[in-house]
Amino acid sequence: MNSEITMDQNYLALYESELKGSSLISVVAYLRVASYTQGDDSPLESGVQASAIRRLCEEKFPEGCRIIWVTDKGASGNTPWQRAGHEHSQYRPGLTLVTQLIERGYVRYVCVERLHRLTRSPKLWLEFKEKYLDRYDVQLLSAAEPVEVAKGDYNSFVELLVSDGSCIRCQISQAAHHGLHNRLADGYPLGKPPYGWQCQDRRKLKSGQRIGIEPVHKQAAVVRQIWDRFLAGQNTADIAEELNQMRVCSPSGKHKWSVRTILRILKNPLHCGLILGSKGEYVRGEHFERRIIDESLFARALDRLSRMRRRRTM
């Protein structure tokens, strides 16, 4: 019969007596969830991991064991456990708790669904094995791979699996970079649409058509107003003050415009249907036919900004 405890780093002291008092074999089940949006019961992430670990424990320990569940959410496989001088964002709290449980002698086994849940870094794997598995005679179990790593066992197969996880991570990163490059080459801007624009409604697009951007009518009218005022000779501070007096909602969602916000709009080529290409040049974007202002107005605005900047430096 198995008993289970769900723990996090903040409440380790509350379970000290329970961890010391049980006669059952203790297994720390480590779950690494790739996204903060995946909950503990998610069938896509931790739910699958937990089910696989439970099945392994039932097979490995037919007389029962105590499973200590530890989870890291939104954590990279290359992030280490806590070390001296590390800020909270630089380490995994869950993996740090695993190392603390090992150091205090509360567990004899560490169980993961797959080895890359523990780490994708060969360097971190070797350090974890030397400092914790070997030093404290703790065995590592994997539910998906036929691997049991005990003290002194430098299993090259395990190192191969961890290295393979590192390669997969590199391939994912390269694929994402390649996808962004292709999107830019096809004229689609990257990142969140700026003030005056929104993503197109997928339901209104043809099957297989990529989502672009389209103007938000009320905001587009404000963008045109900013350009008209500026090219008529008004300075950016006066434009911001005018919009504040008119109680126009700013990009931040508040009725507060600043010179910096006005300049950001005037310098953004997206408003005239252009995007910044991979070589730093302006090229026509996929949204060119839906542009808010004309290219000539954008060029005139940049020219006036350049002249104003030169006057300030003279």
What does this protein look like?
Helix content is 42%, strand content 14%. The chain is an alpha/beta fold and 314 residues long. The chain has 2 domains: 3-170, 3-Layer(aba) Sandwich (Rossmann fold), CATH 3.40.50; 197-313, Putative Large Serine Recombinase, Chain B, Domain 2 (Hect, E3 ligase catalytic domain fold, Alpha-Beta Complex), CATH 3.90.1750. The strands form 3 sheets. The chain has a 6-stranded mixed β-sheet with strand order 1-3-2-4-5-6, sandwiched between helices. Helix 2 (46-60) links the parallel strand 2 (25-33) and strand 3. The protein starts with a strand and ends with a helix.
Write the layout of secondary structure elements.
Blueprint: E1 3-6, H1 16-21, E2 25-33, H2 46-60, E3 65-73, H3 93-103, E4 109-112, H4 115-118, H5 122-134, E5 139-142, E6 148-149, H6 156-185, E7 197-199, E8 213-215, H7 217-231, H8 236-245, H9 259-266, E9 274-276, E10 282-284, H10 295-313
Parallel strand pairs: 1-3, 2-3, 2-4, 4-5
Antiparallel strand pairs: 5-6, 7-8, 9-10
Helix pairs in contact: 8-9
Query: Can you tell me the residue ranges where pLDDT is under 50 for at least 5 consecutive residues?
Result: 37-44
Helix segment tally: 10
The SS-based structural class is: alpha/beta
Q: What number is the mean pLDDT?
A: 82
β-strand number: 10
CATH homology-level superfamily of the largest domain: Resolvase, N-terminal catalytic domain
Portion of residues in helices? 40-55%
According to CATH, the fold-level topology of the largest domain is: Rossmann fold
Order of helices and strands: EHEHEHEHHEEHEEHHHEEH
**Architecture of the largest domain, CATH level 2?**
3-Layer(aba) Sandwich
Number of structural units classed as domains: 2
Strand order of the largest sheet: 1-3-2-4-5-6
Q: What profile does the largest beta sheet have? A: 6 strands, mixed
> What's the multimeric state?
single chain
Approximately how much beta-strand content do the residues carry? 5-15%
